[in-house]
């Protein structure tokens, strides 16, 4: 079966399939190979920092980014952690708790980074 020019071009550039192997593929099989080549990305862990001085917050954000966290600016539907400083607003903390977001302080966040342990 003849593959579409687009598919044939992609398969030749992304795989090491021989001409014989390419000729034996169906269009569907070819696309399945292409989609299997896409890297599987794991969803990032989302964290928001609140109640910290700008300097503290920037330091925490840098650490989170270096450890592949996604930084949220507010309480979102995908938020996993809310890291709270001394001046964290009670309304934001309540909203996070209602969404079953895990609340952390800076020390617990550092421990999470170092050990992977989530506080109880």
From TrEMBL:
Which Pfam families does the UniProt entry name for this protein? BRCT (PF00533)
The BRCT domain covers 44-113
Query: Which protein are we looking at?
Result: BRCT domain-containing protein
């Amino acid at each position: 079966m003849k593959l579409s020019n687009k598919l044939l071009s992609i398969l030749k550039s992304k795989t090491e399939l021989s001409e014989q192997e390419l000729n034996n593929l169906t269009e569907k099989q070819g696309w399945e190979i292409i989609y299997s080549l896409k890297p599987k990305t794991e969803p990032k862990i989302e964290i928001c920092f609140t109640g910290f001085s700008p300097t503290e917050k920037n330091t925490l954000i840098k650490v989170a980014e270096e450890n592949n966290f996604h930084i949220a600016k507010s309480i979102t539907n995908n938020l996993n952690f809310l890291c709270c400083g001394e001046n964290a607003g009670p309304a934001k903390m309540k909203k996070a708790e209602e969404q079953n977001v895990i609340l952390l302080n800076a020390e617990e966040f550092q421990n999470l980074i170092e050990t992977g342990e989530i506080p109880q």
